[in-house]
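Input record (Table S2, row 474):
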Amino acid sequence: MSVSTSTALGPADAVPDPPRQVDVVIVGARCAGAPLATLLARAGRTVALVDRAERIGNTLSSHIMQADTLRFLDRLGVLPDVLATGAPPFVAADTRLEDFHGLLRYPGATHGPGGGICVRRQMLDPLLLVAARRAGVQPVLGAKVTDLLIGDGRVTGVRLRTASGPVEIAAKLVVGADGRQSTVARLVGARRYHVVPGTRAYHWSYFADATPAGPPTFVFHRWGDQFVLGAPTDSGLYLVGTAHTLPVGGPAGHRCTAEDFLADATSCPPVAQALAGAQRVAGIFGLTGFDGYFRDGAGPGWVLIGDAGHFKDPAAGRGIGDAFRQVDALAATLPGVLDGSARDLDGATAAFARWRDREFLAHYWVGSDLGRSGEIPTFLPEIVRRMTDRGRGADLLAVLSHDAQPTTVLSPGRAVGAVGRLLAGGRVPRRRVLAEFGAAVGDQFRRARLVRRPRHEAATAPTVVAGASTEGCR
Ligand SMILES: Cc1cc2nc3c(=O)[nH]c(=O)nc-3n(C[C@H](O)[C@H](O)[C@H](O)COP(=O)(O)OP(=O)(O)OC[C@H]3O[C@@H](n4cnc5c(N)ncnc54)[C@H](O)[C@@H]3O)c2cc1C
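Output record (flavin-adenine dinucleotide complex):
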């Protein structure tokens, strides 16, 4: 079986003559950009959706999506097409966190579109683009944004490099949905803050003829320094992902051979069972050397969404869903202010940026903690064990799907209770439990201080237009 199967749109879909004046230019036509274009077009706004890629196909991602993401796809009207790729919605999450192991049932699987799903990006992203086209947007592909148009201290449009020469598009608002290396962010001088360097390498690949046990299940096993995930994906394939700590000195000396990858993958029993008799039908994709961050989110005439504005450790599998949440928020406010004053528009995008920080910060820290090297503090699996014993496993899945804030589910009260039980039980050395808890409390204080006084990196280019302040983003 080939894994190149894709619904990718190509150069034939490119617009030969892009519009020169629109309400909104969106740079980047994937998870963040394409649905925003769809929703704005449905609200009657004119949109130019541009991407430097000549075809929207695969991109680096292990593409696990949780229940909220499925609900968004449903509202966008593409869920039937997504399900037609053959990707089965998950019924349960086979979860291991250190010495805790249990099967968590997704509540959404019985009365909603499903508990989660895993669809390769060369299948998903083109479907998002098709939805935009159905809404009347004509994607401008093969068009790289090289500069911003500036007037009266505001961003007023973009300059594109296309096969037929440079093109300028004027707009009331430029949306940077152009990913981690965002050109828009660089050109406006948006600075990163709350930066957390990744300490692990992620690798993943696809297998045919896999035989996972039971109904469609997301396997998420995190123990010691090991991290293995598995999930049925589209086209009858099975996704396997692994992560391990980078050598001291960073990604340069890092290698992951096919043997290393398979050994890591099959150290997880349910994945080993799924792969017995399966064949790997794709190369091994990898990501080494990445940072988690927030970026200044908005300024005069510009706003960032998706990875352009915020990236987190892939361990939490939240990038796509978080992009969709940001799309929802922005699409709800923009139509009401695009015809108003520049001040109203900039006020709305600045409010969006503050909301983004409030909404995603707690999840960001959880993702960073899950992704970092080494064992998870013992009180966390203890919280999870107690909650599942009491039938509250769905609350944990609600954190993964961003339907609940981590601070309410993994609450200080539950942490203190777990520490008390561990100290009383004597299973884990007392000194270790207390040291881990002390470190976690220290992290909380350090992070609270960072929120009050974010540490911004220097902008990578001279600031063209000052970014919105993050002060008061609590
Ligand atoms: C290793 C890894 C694993 C991941 N696993 C998961 C997971 O399991 N679940 C999950 O939900 N998320 C996951 N993510 C995150 C997820 O892939 C991203 O959050 C998501 O792709 C963000 O979408 P986006 O539209 O913001 O940016 P992108 O997908 O990066 O798209 C940006 C687009 O902008 C275009 N562009 C860039 N510069 C320009 C320019 N100058 N002019 C015109 N166009 C431009 C690019 O061509 C690209 O098409 C993972 C990420 C990584 C790296």
